[in-house]
Amino acid sequence: MPNPQKILLIDDDATMAELIGFMVTAFRREPFVVEHRADFASGLKSLVSGDYVLCLLDYHLGERDGLELLREAKAQHCPTPVILLTGSSREETDLAAMDGGAVDFMEKIELNPRGLERAVYYALKMSAAMAQLKDQAAHDELTGVMNRREFDRRLLEEWQRSVRFKRPLSLVMMDLDRFKVINDTHGHPVGDEVLRHVATLLTGQLRQVDCLARYGGDEFALLLVETDLDGARAVAARLRALVGTTPCRVESKGLTIDVGISVGVAAWPDHADKLPALVVAADLALYESKRRGAGGRVS
């Protein structure tokens, strides 16, 4: 039997917590186990830990309410789906729950094992569907790396964090050499294979905290957090060397295609005091690298 999945219950009523725990043990499908937190602070800490597949959250938590806890959890980018438990059927409470980010809401007076089980599975399915849509919206369909819109959002977020805490931040712009020739010679499907090949090579060399995106047609952007100019140039040189020494093999066409990238690097605080200036500096460095010709050193 698989290990039971964990549901977090945040409720200051011990009797209700015991009742809900009993209902969950009566679920007919896969097993779940309930872990109970009785106050706002411990509940919020547990919720944002990411250790639970779902949270059942009471609306009334002493001096502070569940909606406030829900808002704080969402502000910390907590992905755990939440069902708000209410003691009344007031429409404004229900609407506030949905506006606050709850997947569903239930009146405590109507709780029963079958209804609670249906609500839990509905919330889990909704959460999975929303996560899939969010992932698709944030990634480039061809290469699987981050798309331009999501990259710009992360770039702004990391820029603000770096400036606030005075930590280094580097931006690397990369462009495939002779990509138009590849497309013109072998066709766009082969060009797509080359783009996927390069994206895979780059992704395999990065830390989990770094952000790689397809920035344009054949251009990639890489955000290196907590990385100064020298460190970024070392990473860029390593990536350029890897791509340059790892041909793309297109098995369906029997082709082996040599690939190269030109690279430009800019860093905060070395090159810019504003975010747009950092992007411009990286673009100019890339232009200088391409001006030197394919295989030119990192700029």
Distance between the termini: 57 Å
Total number of helices = 10
What is the count of structural domains?
2
**SSE order, as H and E?**
EHEHEEEHEHEHHEHHEEHEEEH
Radius of gyration: 25 Å
Average predicted local confidence, pLDDT:
91
Which second-level CATH architecture of the largest domain applies?
2-Layer Sandwich
pLDDT < 50 stretches = none
Structural class: alpha/beta
Question: Could you characterize what this model shows?
Answer:
The chain is α/β, with parallel strands linked by helices. It folds into two domains: 5-137, Rossmann fold, CATH 3.40.50; 148-291, Reverse transcriptase/Diguanylate cyclase domain (Alpha-Beta Plaits), CATH 3.30.70.270. The chain has ten helices and 13 strands. The protein has helices spanning 14-25, 40-47, 66-75, 91-99, 113-138, 148-165, 179-186, 188-203, 229-244, 275-291, and strands spanning 5-10, 32-37, 54-58, 60-61, 64-65, 82-86, 104-107, 169-176, 211-214, 219-225, 248-250, 255-257, 261-268. The strands form four sheets. The chain has a five-stranded parallel beta sheet, with helices on both faces. A four-stranded antiparallel beta sheet has the order 9-10-8-13, sandwiched between helices. A two-stranded antiparallel ribbon has the order 4-5. It is elongated. The termini are far apart.
